Every structure is written in structure tokens, then in C-alpha cells.
Amino acid sequence: MSFFSPFEENDEVDGDTSNDLLLAQMLQHEFDRAADEQLRLEEEQYNGNSKVSLSFSHYRCVHPAIAGDEDDEDLSDGHSDNEERFVAPTFNRSGVAGRGKSMISKHDAALNAKRNAHRLMEFPCEFESGDSRQLPLPNRVFNVLKVHMMNESKRAQRLHDKQEKATAEQSLDSKTRLLLYKLINADILQNVAGCISTGKEATVFYATGGKSTEVLVPAECVAKVFKTTLNEFKNRDKYIRDDYRFRDRLTHQNPRKVIHLWAEKEMHNLMKMRYFGIPCPDVVLLKKHILVMSFIGTDQRPAPKLKEAALSAEQMQDAYEQVVEIMKKLFRDCQLVHADLSEYNILWHQERAWIIDVSQSVEPVHPLGLEFLLRDCRNVVRFFSKNNVPDVPSAESLFNSLTELNFTGEGRDFLSQLQEYEKSETLMAHAAHNQKEFVFDYFFERSLREREDDDDEEDDEDEEDEDEREEEEGGEECAGDAEEA
User: What CA–CA distances, in Å, run from 364 to 239, 243, 380, 426?
Assistant: First the structure.
């Protein structure tokens, strides 16, 4: 096989770069050498320590004759493979090698120290050991390093899995992105744009509605992605544990399923509020921990929070009256307590106050429901009093006017009376009455039926896949029998 080398001795140009052809060939040769070196590194990385290796020599650019000469030059300053490779002696069944004075046991300390030094070089690249071939390592030290390396490898794998499954920061882990892609492919959403807001429990993204005929999606909507990590909001269970709608489903749940319950809880609360005419986002769709809702705002600009809205004195007075009326309707008609009502969870849009973030909302019969309501009253009174709204009552007076109770005192005395009432038989009887006669939304029962239908569909798909797999295996067996015949 003939080949051309730009370094032939009979070349007319000796070291002269005036020949354009020779210069181009020299540059091409250097480029090929760099490509071959990269290919060699990829080959080593692909094969690793496997006994069966694949060769990439078919893809090399430089001829082996030239590559062999250059490799010999590169190895002239380094160590040879024979100097670096450790060859252990061959021991017999008794664990002894050699005879006479040269007899050596497999338990020899010097031999084991040298072997351990070379074995240390076989540890993963993440274990930074340096060049330890000239460093004798006793068995005790080597075993400690080996255990440490194995523990660090397991720890790194756990951290990697945790980062892949967690939805901290912007809430977009691999599973969440897959769910969003499915919503886009189903034409429920056209696209998902930037982040509107982020908090300790969820992140809200702006999205545009698709053209799906199965689900009515508005032109502008939001995708609220609940974070599946419990690091930022660890007391979720106290809002769900005593809610009779979710009480039986909370036991023995992993964190991701708890987040699914949390998202489902917000969907039911929003549906109930919308049913009683309370201004809040419309629920479009719930997909595991992603809740798609209508967008409160215009032209991709979200409505400002009450904390950030620039309102005049008349508008602030109107906002106070609307918020008090919403709290009254929420408690008396809707039978809910927001449990986190503040100027940060109220939007101001089209001269109206809109309530958002109701995933933690509970019913008044919740063991801590009235305490949550008192906290909401304190937040509302504090904000509007700070903004110089006239005739704002105290938090205790607002609480009594909403609940139609007549607790006296302030501060701790008022709270102690409230806690005693929560434990009384009167509240328990009221709770039993509400569980029997209150309109437990038809929406909740409908969602249960839909979830059961989804589970049945998944089971049917699994059964169909198994049937197809069995048919394929049966077909292969029949074909094999025919060939034998």
C-alpha cells in the first residue's frame, strides 16, 4: 500500500515553506494527528477496563508507519510500559513462589505494598490519588482508601439522583419537563414562556393556550409547578392531615405523592371558590404536580400583587372592603379559611381583588382552622392600617364579625378562648353537620372518577403491551418450529 508523506527525504523543498502544496500537506498532517489523538482518547474512555475492547483504528487519518515513528519519539522521554506495569509472581497452592532465598509468600508486606500502590491507580478518576506507583501502601491503608472510595461513589450517585429528581430553584426537573412536553404535544399548551413568580412551594410560568378540542384553554394561562422537594416548605402535612377529603390518602406517602395531593388540594379549593363566585383563577387542567390555570393579567403582564400595586386612597379603601367581603364569603358560604392570606397572595386587576395561592386553605372545622383565620385577620388589618385606611377594626373584632362568635379580650387571652372553643363539643358537632350536609362539590367526586378512569386506562395499556409481547414471542416460537421442521 502506497501513501504520501510530507516528510520524505527526496522532497525538492528542504525546510522551505514557499511551496504552498507542501505547507498545506504539513498543516493537514498536524490536523490529522490531533484528530487521531482525540480518537484514541475516546477509544480508551469507551473501552475502559473491559476485557473485550473495540478498536477505532479504521477511522484514523495518519498512516500507521508515520504514527509509529512519531509515537516512538514521544515515548523516548517517558517511562515504558514494562516499567510501569506491575507483574505479580505466580504462587502455588500453598501461596508460595520461588525457592530457597528467593522464596516469597503471597502475604509478603513489601509485595502487597507495591501491588496496592498500583491497584490504587485503577480507582475512578473522581478519586484524586495522584501518581502512587512509587508509594508503598500497606493493606490496612489500602483497605481504608478503598472503603472511602466506594462510599464517595455511592454518595455522588445519590446526589446525582437527587438533583435529577428534585424540583428546586425553577422547578424544572426531567420529569416536569416531560410533563410539559406532553401538554404541548397534546395541543393543550402552545408554549411555556418565562417565570412569573417563584416561592417556597411552587413556581408559576406564563404559557399560551393551545387549540385542543377536548379541554377549553384560554389564550393566556399559567402553569404552576409545585416543587417536589420538601426542603423549603416542610410543614405541608399539617394542612392536609386533618382535612377529611385527603386524610385517608396521606398515610405512608412518599414526598412526590404528597406534592401531588398538595396540587390537587389547590385545584379543589379553586373550584369551590369559583363555584361560590369568589374572584380567583379558573382551573384548566391538573397533571400530577402541574396545575394549569387562567392568567390574571393582560398582554403577558401579570396583575400586580396588592403589596406592589400603586393605589390611591379611594382604591385602597375599596380594596379593603372587597377583601373583607371575600373573607366573609370564603368562611360562611365556601366553608374555607385561606390560612395564608396577605398582601402577597392578593392580586389587583381591573379594580378587583383576586385571591391566589389557596393550596394550604383548610375548612373551618380543621383543628387549626380558626387559628389560621385569626392569623389572616391580623395580616389584613396590619397591611391596611399601615396604608392609612380609616376605620380598620382590630384583628379580634374582624375575626368575631366573620365567625359571628363573641370572644373577648385581646392577644393571648383571645387566643386561649379560641383554642378552647376548637376543642369543644360544639365545634365537633358543627364539623359532623358540615360533613353530612355541606355541598361537597360535585367537582371533587368528578375528579375522583376521572383519576380512576386514568388508572384504568394505564392498566389497560399495560395489559395490551403484555398481550402484544406474548403474541410476538408466540410468533417467534412458531417460526422457530417451522424452521426446524
Answer: 12, 10, 18, 13
pLDDT tens digits, one per residue of 58-75: 777 776 656 555 444 444
Output the CA angle 19-25-29, nearest 5 degrees: 145
Question: Per residue in 293-312, pLDDT tens?
Answer: 999 999 899 999 999 999 99
Give the residue from 345, 354, 359 showing the smallest Cα distance to 279: 354
Is 340 a known active-site residue?
A: yes
Per-residue pLDDT band for 456 (boundaries 50, 70, 90) equals: low
**What is the phi/psi pair of residue 195, to 5°?**
-85, 130
SS (H, E, C) the chain: CCCCCCCCCCCCCCCCCCCHHHHHHHHHHHHHHHHHHHHHHHHHHHHCCCCCCCCCHHHCCCCHHHHHHHHHHHCCCCCCHHHHCCCCCCCCCCCEECCHHHCEECCCHHHHHHHHHHHHCCCCCCCCCCCCCCCCCCHHHHHHHHHHHHHHHHHHHHHHHHHHHCCCCCCCCHHHHHHHHHHHHCCCEEEEEEEEEECCCEEEEEEEECCCCCCCCCCEEEEEEECCCCCCCCCCHHHHCCCCCCHHHHCCCCHHHHHHHHHHHHHHHHHHHHHCCCCCCCEEEEECCEEEEECCEECCEECCECCCCCCCHHHHHHHHHHHHHHHHHHHHCCCCECCCCCCCCEEEECCEEEECCCCCCECCCCCCHHHHHHHHHHHHHHHHHHCCCCCCCCHHHHHHHHHCCCCCCCHHHHHHHHHHHHCCHHHHHHHHHHHHHCCCCHHHHHHHHHHHHHHHHHHHHHHHHHHHHHHHHHHHHHHHHHHHC
Catalytic residue among 36, 340, 357, 376: 340
The whole-angstrom separation of Cα 146 and Cα 116 is 10
